[in-house]
Design a protein that fits this description.
The chain has 3 helices and no strands. It starts with a helix and ends in a 7-residue tail after the last helix.
């Protein structure tokens, strides 16, 4: 890969890290609330479908990070 392609890949990876941090922050907040006796947040996360959305977003990020990795190191791609 050329330097400009690597820079683009690095920029994409940074964006995905930012998305992951949003999910981490949300889960940390729910975890804190549950640990301090407010189980409503955990139940709401599940009942509202937000947990499924979070899982879908994490899978989306995982897939895209793997694609970037495969572009950077194509010889490592499993067939």
């Amino acid at each position: 890969m050329k330097n400009d392609e690597l820079l683009n890949s690095a920029t994409e990876l940074t964006s995905y890290c930012d998305l992951l941090q949003l999910g981490i922050n949300y889960l940390e907040n729910v975890d804190y609330q549950i640990k301090h006796g407010d189980e409503w947040h955990g139940a709401y996360l599940i009942k509202s479908g937000q947990l499924t959305n979070l899982i879908d977003n994490l899978q989306y990020i995982c897939d895209h990070v793997q694609n970037i990795s495969n572009e950077i190191c194509p010889d490592e791609v499993e067939i």
